[in-house]
Amino acid sequence: MAKPDIVLVNPQSRKRVYQKLGDELAAIENPVWAGLMATFCRVKGLNVEILDAEALELDHADVAEEIEKLDPTLTVVVVYGHQPSASTQIMPACSAVTSAIKGNNPSRPLLMAGGHVAALPDVTMADEACDWVASGEGLYTMVALVQELKSSGPFDPEKVPGLWYRDGSKVRVTPNPKLCKDLDNEMPGIAWDLLPMDRYRAHNWHCLDGLERQPYAALYTTLGCPYHCSFCCIQAPFKSGEKELGIKEEVNSYRFWSVDAVLNELGKLAEMGVKNIKIADEMFVLNKRHVMGICDGIIERGYDFNFWAYARIDTVKDGMLPKMKQAGFNWFAFGIEAANSRVQEDVSKRFDNDEIYRVCKEVQDHGIHIIGNYIFGLPEDDHDSMQETLDMALELNCEFANFYSAMAYPGSPLYRQAQTEGWELPDSWGGYSQHSVDSKPLPTKYLSAAEVLGFRDAAFNEYFQSPKYLALVKEKFGQETVDHINEMCKHTLKRDLLGTSEKSGAAA
Q1: Are strands 170-173 and 163-167 parallel, antiparallel or unpaired?
Q2: Same domain for 336 and 227?
Q3: Are 351 and 335 in contact (CB under 8 A)?
Q4: Are 308 and 450 found together in one domain?
Q5: Cβ distance 311 to 289 under 8 Å?
Q6: In what order do the strands lie in the sheet with 132-134?
Q7: Which tens digit of pLDDT belongs to each residue from 153-204?
Q8: CB 13 within 8 A of CB 92
């Protein structure tokens, strides 16, 4: 086997992030961004491997040994997670695997790329054992870095765009490259052949109808997001660079793969026997032409998929739902977030509550299930407003719910606000996990972090043990699924912040 130019590493983080929920409940998801990066490098003529330590259950020492065997020109630790907001919480694992690789071989060239490190490249350079950090998406940075490492002349980091590097005692950065715009030709899908596809499993809620969670895959049909919610860090990698450690300007990051390219990817998954599919787009249900084109193609080809996708209350347009249901879109993830208008407006995500109820009912009337996403502890939250949010969740009675504590994720406007205001942040990157032992949400203007986390955990149990909810589950999915929900609620999460082992299951 030829020596790889690049090995992309997805570290094992599930146990640290989810505690015991990682054993059976948490999804095991193919590393979407690493899979796309691999294809991008292949198109540029590079030989690439992916080492998915999460799926293969390789510890950090195992990864370091594998890297030595493969001996790539460049090792890239990809800091991503299930979605961009999960990037920071896997940093302890990324740090550990980086240290293990460099501990085995200090001269091993190593780059870190992904959302968290793009948000905090200077901090990453100061704290981590890596040689370099990619300041943006990392695509053109990786390719140029390998080319420079393989060149016969002296290594010149200034020839590599979007690269943070050390110059003696100083840290410097080269200008960011443009965003990848021609997705069909430069990054046509995920390198499925480099992934252990038999190891991945869907979220439990995605498969409440039958509880068959494998096989499973996640893919993008768009990149980026046109919205700028203050609690979201999606925009962190999408910046234009400055020569030195200066201001980075945000750009419009929203891009599409063509309908034909998406259908080609889905065709590959169908041939592999994959049925459960996550559309990982930050906002799939947005552009009606794009969504309907994909649905038309799925229906024409007769594919039998079980999809879930993100949507907003205000992006579900007339005429979309019947065709989406026919194409296999059985679940929408709605970011409802909060019920109180003051809280909503403060984070730049305001919906009329009557509209939330109307749209949710319309979606469910078309046979599409909803996982409602709610956030407790946004800056304007007090106990009464959090109770309003919980009351809305109980009244909506969606088929599933995620209850989050507000986190100021690095790269989000909320993080910058927290720094400016001097709000207390987690003591470690692992503290940004919703389910970890050291989870530490933001305090609000009126509540402590412990009060927020305690409310969140209690809200989870109240929702999933509600007779109204369990009756809905039995009606729609059967007694076996009710038993599964009850078993899920028996799990406990240890919470250092609460000083006890709180009874609180979790959607993982």
Answers
A1: antiparallel
A2: no
A3: no
A4: yes
A5: no
A6: 48-52, 6-10, 74-79, 110-114, 132-134, 163-167, 170-173
A7: 899 999 999 999 999 999 999 999 888 989 999 999 999 999 999 999 999 9
A8: yes
